[in-house]
Q: What sequence folds into this?
């Protein structure tokens, strides 16, 4: 995969050099863990497609396979290759900072994509591009208020502990919920590691523990659908409003069937295109804000038809 | 002789100690502990001993339990199987993905065939090539996870028309009021326990685990015996994948991640020796149930599920220590 891309890149560079004298940007990307989930797999192909459509961009596409050490090596590699910009999807928001600093010192602008790095590293990056997870949590809270008419008891199923996305979504949700509808009480929060089967088990225990649950907020649709499955087999799904985030195909279908109240539409295609565009803007010397969030709208039965079913 | 206590230690115990309440308690320490656990949790949570909660826990524990039945056989035979976690991912992804492509019957058949093939690879490497089972199955744990990712290309798989397929029966169905996963778990446990206790085959597995040299000299074909334990383990994983896939009606690539340790925890907690040659399926069943009730109890008390890890392993180390201390004491009294 990598070699093929590298080969294609060099061939493209060669031909681009022959045809036009206009400046060509070489952008290297090191991703987190392609192939481990559908979102990241779709992101990679979307990124390559977007780069293909631009004449003045060549990309070197790398993947860290979830391994921090490998990602640091890849960043160094890209510095050696003297690429014009580096896009990084951090495997770990803290551990990659030294590598990013090296790139910064070598005069190569770094764009962080999808998931943020720690505060300490912000000085060394040109920009961040990705979803606003705090805002997503807040939007989910607003949907919850709407679904319950501002009153009720809910449970929260969160993503993997320690994962920035999970923490930001929870925080956004809890803060906004307390503000927008203080009469909705969170009975309990349990993590389920973005895993549908675990979410199903956690929900089964919630259903045993609490006789009265009006709503479930899940950190993504994969877990939300797990919770829905549990409630369905307990015959209690009708009484519960399910709200998720990162709309998955299964979540989309459940909204279509009227079993699931709503979610947040986050497209890996938008995510990839935004990252590439941000890097280009930086290279072209445009004024780029530090934080660039692409649009992640609420999706419910009312506006479902405006969105394509997610491919993952 | 032909019982599950057909072990070096078990044999000695039954000779030196006549049955008595105290002896029963120490011999069945794990059962006593189990009841104490149940009692303790019931003090703090009203729902804990409710019928619906017990049913839920037993159903949740059955996936781990089904796999643990197979792995117990491997361990009694003197080897380990750590590959079951990613094997479960593989089989679940496969059966769910093929369900919509070639129909449920074909999907189940292909899944069982390929899972047994993975078991055969384990069995060949450990049984015939005589490689260390820890290393072989640890390598297979990573290799099979890679295989899953290559097969699925990273995409989650789902069954499209979930309400229209009878495939849901394995994970969500009920028979005479009992959840189907529990029935599968119970059937497998009973059949394997009977085979291990009352057949020549079972005795041979105990023999190669307990004293391989003596077993070979008495005519046991060790290679084939070891090979067969991995087939049993793979068969159990395939059954678990059936339940898991049908329960979730979809699968992530890493759905089985961590199951190898949960399974091992249940087996050790039950009291089956990792050294081989001793143990029983029913002990494993108790161990797995304790694990399930601890997790459930902690959740009902409001602790996050990962506190279960801490609590479980503290209990396991305590249990192993008590067990060992007990055996040492008995050996000493016997010799004095």
A:
């Amino acid at each position: 995969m990598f070699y093929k891309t590298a080969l294609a890149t060099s061939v493209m560079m060669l031909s681009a050099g022959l045809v036009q004298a206009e400046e060509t940007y070489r952008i290297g990307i090191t991703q987190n863990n392609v192939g481990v989930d559908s979102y990241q797999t779709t992101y990679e192909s979307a990124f390559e497609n977007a780069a293909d459509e631009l004449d003045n961009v060549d990309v070197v596409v790398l993947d860290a396979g979830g391994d921090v050490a490998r990602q640091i090596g890849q960043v160094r590699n890209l510095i050696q290759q003297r690429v014009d910009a580096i896009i990084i999807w951090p495997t770990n928001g803290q551990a990659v900072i030294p590598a990013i600093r090296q790139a910064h010192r070598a005069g190569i602008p770094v764009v962080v994509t999808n998931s943020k790095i720690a505060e300490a590293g912000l000085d060394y990056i040109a920009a961040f591009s990705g979803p606003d997870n705090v805002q997503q949590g807040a939007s989910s809270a607003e949907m919850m208020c709407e679904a319950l008419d501002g009153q009720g008891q809910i449970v929260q199923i969160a993503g993997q502990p320690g994962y920035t996305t999970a923490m930001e979504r929870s925080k956004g949700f809890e803060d906004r919920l307390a503000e927008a509808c203080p009469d909705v009480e969170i009975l309990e929060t349990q993590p389920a590691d973005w895993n549908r089967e675990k979410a199903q088990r956690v929900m089964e225990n919630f259903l045993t523990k609490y006789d009265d649950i009006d709503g479930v907020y899940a950190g993504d649709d994969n877990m939300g659908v797990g919770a829905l499955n549990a409630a369905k087999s307990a015959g209690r799904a009708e009484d519960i409003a399910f709200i998720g985030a990162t709309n998955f195909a299964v979540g989309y279908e459940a909204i279509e069937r009227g079993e699931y109240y709503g979610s947040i539409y986050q497209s890996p295609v938008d995510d990839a295109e935004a990252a590439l565009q941000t890097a280009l803007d930086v290279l072209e010397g445009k004024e780029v804000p530090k934080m660039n969030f692409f649009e992640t709208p609420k999706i419910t039965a009312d506006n479902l038809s405006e969105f394509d079913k997610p491919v993952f | 002789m032909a019982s599950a206590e057909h072990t070096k230690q078990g044999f000695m115990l039954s000779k030196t100690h006549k049955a008595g309440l105290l002896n029963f308690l120490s011999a069945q320490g794990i059962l006593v502990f189990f009841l104490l656990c149940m009692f303790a949790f019931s003090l703090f949570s009203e729902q804990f001993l409710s019928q619906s909660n017990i049913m839920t826990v037993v159903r949740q524990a059955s996936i781990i339990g089904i796999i643990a039945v197979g792995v117990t056989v491997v361990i009694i035979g003197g080897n380990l199987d750590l590959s079951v976690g990613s094997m479960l991912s593989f089989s679940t992804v496969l059966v769910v993905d093929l369900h919509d492509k070639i129909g449920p019957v074909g999907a189940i058949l292909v899944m069982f065939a390929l899972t047994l093939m993975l078991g055969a690879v384990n069995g060949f490497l450990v049984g015939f090539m005589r490689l260390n089972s820890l290393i072989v199955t640890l390598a297979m744990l990573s290799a099979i996870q890679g295989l899953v990712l290559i097969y699925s290309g990273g995409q989650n798989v789902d069954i499209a028309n979930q309400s229209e397929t009878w495939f849901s029966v394995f994970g969500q169905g009920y028979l005479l009021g009992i959840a189907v996963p529990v029935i599968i778990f119970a059937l497998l446990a009973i059949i394997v326990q009977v085979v291990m206790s009352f057949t020549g085959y079972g005795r041979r597995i105990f023999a190669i685990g307990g004293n391989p040299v003596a077993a070979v000299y008495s005519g046991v074909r060790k290679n084939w015996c070891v090979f067969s334990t991995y087939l049993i383990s793979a068969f159990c994983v395939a059954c678990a994948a059936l339940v898991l896939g049908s329960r979730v009606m979809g699968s992530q690539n890493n759905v089985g991640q961590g199951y190898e340790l949960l399974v091992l925890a249940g087996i050790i907690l039950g009291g089956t020796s990792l050294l081989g040659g001793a143990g029983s399926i029913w002990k494993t069943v108790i161990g797995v149930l304790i694990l399930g009730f601890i997790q459930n109890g902690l959740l009902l008390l409001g602790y996050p599920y990962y506190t279960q890890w801490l609590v479980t392993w503290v209990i396991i180390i305590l249990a192993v220590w008590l067990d060992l201390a007990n055996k040492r004491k008995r050996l000493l009294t016997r010799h004095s």
User: Anything to note?
Assistant: The longest strand of chain A covers residues 184-191. Confidence is low (pLDDT under 50) at residues 14-21 of chain A. The radius of gyration of chain A is 21 Å.
